[in-house]
Structures are given as structure tokens and as C-alpha cells.
Design goal:
seven-stranded mixed β-sheet; 14 strands; Rossmann fold; alpha/beta; 2 domains
């Protein structure tokens, strides 16, 4: 577990020394010093090393920014201004390490956890946290198994792959129908873990409802260094659409391989495509052009989201979905602490379960948790157009109209 850094730019030793000197000057005010609220420790578990390290680092960025914002605004006011204290953990993309981080942070006094980006890690880590009845907020994690095991300590604000598939398929059907229904077949390429396999099976089951046949589901390992053979298989099957559900590196590599081999398609459509972000469309505008993704996205019409986007970019980072999802989950936790007026785990779980938190950064409806899943969470459908990411659905948040089918290679 990474060493926690001071939020005030001073070392622990110098702070303790300064505090000692300060106590002499305030010896006449013991009541004031005794009333200082105890910090609430929040365990942040993300893969900041390993094959999805970038995503984990982005999650940590969003969470720590939110913790700093809560503290700068006066902390948890109903708890006497209690500050949030980050316990930083690295799952290393490994299930057993994620569980180990839960155990370490429990010993350190964690009142709640936020994580874990990868569904398999999240499934194991939440189970470990359940032993201690510690609230666990899923910031990024697509599998619906995260909230279908009857664990009362688990809460997911965002939609899982079931909701994302349903909304994505409906949007694809409308786009295809609006273009005269040129797409009749698809090949689904997915990572072989719980996230990709679960999403792919759902997609294959739903595609016939919009008149599209799933010709084949093609799994791949993590990491995968080459998609040349898979690209050849796709070319031989000649599908109208390639659908993808995988993590960032593989997502971008597959897209680049299909582009370089000039595999003709009417479109590329992903659900929870890990690589569909600003980095991808800025670094590879030609490759990403016209690609569509159903995923978590910020509300482009929200002043708060635009302000946070500017702050993140001013710091040299990209405003990826990990940033604002993790940021929002810290704010959800802070809101629950405010209403619970305590870090007591039973009270905190009850406050989360009854939450009506307004996720103002996201294109969501009212928050309502049912068995730990927020029923108000909504995915968006985006398209890469001229090096920008545009929202094309839902209509009330749309910034552009879909371009489909995509033009052929020249």
C-alpha cells in the first residue's frame, strides 16, 4: 500500500513538530483541541501498476481530487468537520492483491472502500470487505455479479453491463433503422475475463431483437500483443459490424489493426469499450473516426462537469470516465457520512441504501439503490468525430447526430 501523502505539503515529522509548538501556545484551550474531529479513513483500491495501470491511476486521480475538495469545503460538517483521509492501495490487476489490500486497510481503520476498476478484483475485494461489514462503493466495475450476491455493504452508482447492453442495443437498433437497416451481421471481440465474457454473451443474446445476427464471439487474453489473426478471421466472415468489449490497450490495438488492414465495415460499436476515451481519439483520430461506444460519460451540459474537466486538463491529465466516476463516488460517500452523522458502518450502510444523492457530473436520473445498484444510472452512446467525442444518445444530452454507416476506405 502506498504511503499516504500529506495534503498540506509538509512532512509528517515537521507537522508533528509544529503541532508540539502549537500546543504550548494553546495550552489554555484544551477544550478546543479535544473537540477536533477524527478523520474518516477511505480505502482507495485501484490497479496503479500492471496492464491497466493508466486506468487505475486515473481512478486514483479522481478520488483524491474529490477528497481534497471535501476537505477544503470544511469536511463532514455533521461530524464536526471531520476530514477524509485516503488510504492508497494498488491491486496490481490481481484478485489476491485486491483482497490483501482490503485486509491491510481494515487493520488501518478504513471506514469505507472505493474501487476497483476490474470486475474480478472488485468481486473478491467486496466479499473480503463484507466480513467486516465495511461499505464498498464500486466506482468502475461492469459485472452485474458485483451487486447480485446479496452483499449489503456493496453499492454501485453507475450502471452495469446489463443496463449498458440494453441501452446500447436499443441505440444501435435506432441508428441502423434510421439509415435503412444496412447492418445485418456482427462479430463480437471480447476480453476473456468476467467483464468481457459477460458483456459479449448479453450482446449476442440481444442483437437478434434489432435484426442483427451475431456470427461469432471471439475471446482474447489480457494482455494481447497482436490481433493480426483475429483481423484475418473477421475479414473472412465479412460482418457488417465489429463489436468490442475489452480493456484499453487491447481495444486500441484491435481498432488500429482493423484500420491498418483496411477491413471494410459499416461500423464499429463497443459496449464499455475500455479504450474509447480522449487519449484514443486525440492520439489516433483516423483510427477512431466514426467508432461508437456505449459507456459511462459526463453530462456535457453540466457546468460542474465542465469545470472539473478544465481542472483535470490544466493539471496535464485527460478527463476520462475513471476520473469523474471515482470523483463522484467520493462525493456520494461524503453525502452519506453527512446524513449518517457518523462513520459507524451500520449507520453508513443505511445512509447509502437510502441515498437520494444528485450525481451532477453525470447524465443520470435520481439516485435510488435497489440491492446495491443505482436504478438512476444511465450510460451514454458516443461517437468519435473529427478527433472529438460527441454524445449521440440519449437525445436530451446529445451534442451531435450519428454518422452511420461509415464511409468506405479510399
Amino acid at each position: 500500500m502506498a504511503r499516504k501523502q500529506s495534503r498540506f505539503g509538509v512532512s509528517r515529522r515537521s507537522f508533528v513538530g509544529g503541532a508540539g509548538a502549537l500546543s504550548v501556545g494553546l495550552a489554555g484551550f484544551p477544550a478546543i483541541l479535544g473537540a477536533q474531529a477524527k478523520a474518516v479513513k477511505v480505502g482507495l483500491i485501484h490497479p496503479v501498476t500492471g496492464f491497466v495501470a493508466y486506468n487505475g491511476q486515473q481512478s486514483r486521480l479522481g478520488a483524491t481530487m474529490a477528497i481534497e475538495d471535501v476537505n477544503k469545503a470544511g469536511g463532514v460538517k455533521s461530524m464536526g468537520g471531520a476530514k477524509l483521509e485516503a488510504l492508497l492501495g494498488d491491486s496490481q490487476s490481481k484478485v489476491e492483491v485486491g483482497v490483501s489490500e482490503v485486509e491491510k486497510m481494515n487493520e488501518a481503520g478504513a471506514s469505507a472502500f472505493i474501487g476497483c476498476f476490474q470486475s474480478p478484483v472488485g468481486i473478491a475485494a467486496t466479499q473480503a470487505a463484507a466480513k467486516y461489514n465495511t461499505p464498498f462503493l464500486i466506482d468502475v466495475g461492469a459485472s452485474d455479479q458485483l451487486v447480485r450476491r446479496g452483499l449489503k455493504n456493496v453499492f454501485r452508482l453507475k450502471p452495469g453491463f446489463g443496463k449498458c447492453v440494453d441501452d446500447g442495443i436499443a441505440a444501435l437498433g435506432a441508428i441502423n433503422k434510421g439509415a435503412g437497416s444496412p447492418a445485418k451481421s456482427a462479430v463480437i471481440v471480447h476480453e476473456s475475463g468476467e467483464f468481457g465474457t459477460g458483456t459479449a454473451k448479453l450482446l449476442a443474446g440481444k442483437l437478434p431483437s434489432i435484426g442483427i445476427e451475431a456470427k461469432e464471439l471471439i475471446p482474447h487474453d489480457n494482455p494481447t500483443r497482436s490481433f493480426d489473426n483475429i483481423a484475418l478471421r473477421i475479414r473472412s466472415m465479412a460482418p457488417d459490424i465489429v463489436m468490442m468489449s475489452n480493456y484499453g490497450n487491447e481495444y486500441m490495438l484491435l481498432a488500429r489493426t482493423l484500420f491498418q488492414q483496411k477491413v471494410e465495415l459499416k461500423g464499429m460499436f463497443s459496449v464499455l469499450g475500455g479504450g474509447f476515451n480522449y487519449k484514443f481519439v486525440k492520439d489516433m483520430p483516423d483510427v477512431s473516426q466514426f467508432m461508437m461506444d456505449t459507456n459511462h460519460w459526463f453530462n456535457p451540459r453540466s457546468e460542474a462537469s465542465q469545470a472539473l474537466k478544465k481542472r483535470v486538463e490544466a493539471g496535464g491529465a485527460l478527463f476520462t470516465f475513471e476520473v469523474y466516476l471515482s470523483y463522484t463516488n467520493v462525493m456520494l460517500l461524503a453525502d452519506a457520512l453527512e446524513r449518517a452523522q457518523s462513520a459507524d458502518k451500520e449507520k453508513l450502510i443505511a445512509a447509502l441504501a437510502a441515498s437520494t444523492f444528485k450525481a451532477e457530473l453525470m447524465p443520470y436520473g435520481p439516485t435510488k439503490f435497489v440491492d446495491g445498484q443505482n436504478e438512476g444510472g444511465l450510460p451514454a452512446v458516443m461517437q468519435s468525430l473529427k478527433g472529438e467525442i460527441e454524445v449521440i444518445s440519449p437525445e436530451q444530452f446529445a451534442s451531435a447526430k450519428a454518422v452511420f454507416p461509415r464511409p468506405k476506405f479510399t
